[in-house]
Design goal:
Rossmann fold, 11 helices, six-stranded mixed sheet, 338 residues, six-stranded parallel sheet, 15% strand
């Protein structure tokens, strides 16, 4: 149970107004009383609510968007979708970045206990840890909606895309274009989106009796460059590549150009990416384009329905399909504009 100012006041035999002023370090309260209040509040792990005096009708007017990064074009577009709803509702959007650090994610989520935000939209970090901090947030009845990267163990609403089907379609496209040695550039951890994309890739290759080759990348750019360069310069180099996320797809281009590996003749490339300049690369990149704006907008719509008490969040999954945009990185003549 959360500790309140009223409890502190009762236990210390002080007026609620005295405790409130002491916690605000008011000059009206003696140094001795302040010390008593601060010491007891720390003992009880009291988390002050700096927004309490400004809350009207029990709301802060803020929602939180918790993301692993914004460099990825998907998340930038998703924020725009979220903002399109939040602005109309008169809410401020507060963006928090975890930088793929579960401890930072835990710290951010704990801050929400003080009333800073009314609801949370989240795309979780990639890790093998447990998610007690998210369970606690949900248990505290702070509306929580996942999008893209979801925590499947928490029974709340989520907005995702059809990752399995999209990966299957990507692998099938490479097979139809003649690729027989297709590598899947994966990521470590237990992210559901990576797992489902891996499963779709695997199923497509098994359906066509082709060997699987999964290469695990990291969150470090230099390490990824080394991993991908080793893959592309090996004697058994793949003739097709599927990048599970944007950050592992782009280095393939740089390394292919450096080693004079011709795209799409020597190797064909598909990336899960929302990159706006995909069509301007040399050659233009075939992408599985996620509906980032629409996913952000849908997630925000669900959250505000919950905030307006018109909707009970439940274990519901909304799926918005991705699109395979075929360009010259997998086909000698791009059919993008046909």
């Amino acid at each position: 149970m959360s500790v309140t100012i009223k409890k502190i006041a009762k236990d210390l035999n002080l007026a609620v107004s005295t405790v409130s002023k002491a916690l605000r370090d008011s000059h009206e309260i003696s140094a001795e009383t302040k010390a008593r209040v601060f010491e007891y509040a720390a003992k009880l792990d009291y988390i002050p609510n700096p927004y309490a005096s400004s809350l009207k009708k029990g709301r802060s007017g803020n929602i939180a968007v918790v993301l692993p990064e914004v460099a990825d074009s998907f998340f930038s577009a998703a924020i725009n979708g979220i903002e399109s709803i939040a602005h109309d509702k008169g809410y401020h959007t507060m963006v928090y970045l975890t930088h793929e650090d579960v401890q930072r994610e835990q710290s951010i989520v704990r801050e929400f206990r003080n009333g800073r935000v009314d609801g949370v939209l989240m795309s979780i970090v990639a890790n093998d840890e447990k998610y007690e901090h998210l369970t606690e947030l949900y248990a505290n009845k702070i509306p929580l909606v996942f999008f893209d990267r979801v925590c499947e163990s928490i029974e709340t609403a989520s907005v995702v895309t059809n990752d399995f089907d999209s990966a299957y379609a990507a692998a099938k496209h490479l097979i139809d274009q003649g690729s027989k040695r297709i590598a899947f550039l994966s990521m470590p951890g237990e992210l559901a989106i990576i797992k489902h994309r891996h499963q779709g890739y695997t199923q497509a290759l098994r359906d066509h009796a082709l060997p699987e080759r999964v290469v695990f990348c990291t969150d470090n750019e230099d390490e990824n460059n080394a991993i991908i360069e080793q893959l592309l310069t090996a004697s058994d180099r793949p003739d097709g590549i599927i990048g599970s996320i944007e950050k592992v797809t782009m280095p393939v281009y740089k390394i292919c150009h450096a080693h004079r590996i011709a795209i799409p003749y020597d190797i064909k490339i598909i990336g899960f990416s929302h990159l706006q300049i995909a069509s301007l690369l040399d050659p233009p990149l075939t992408t599985v384009t996620q509906p980032a704006f629409e996913m952000g907008k849908a997630a925000a719509t669900i959250l505000f329905k919950a905030l307006e008490k018109k909707y009970n969040l439940k274990n519901e999954r909304i799926i918005i399909p991705s699109v395979l945009n075929v360009r010259a990185s997998t086909h000698t003549m791009s059919i993008e504009n046909k």
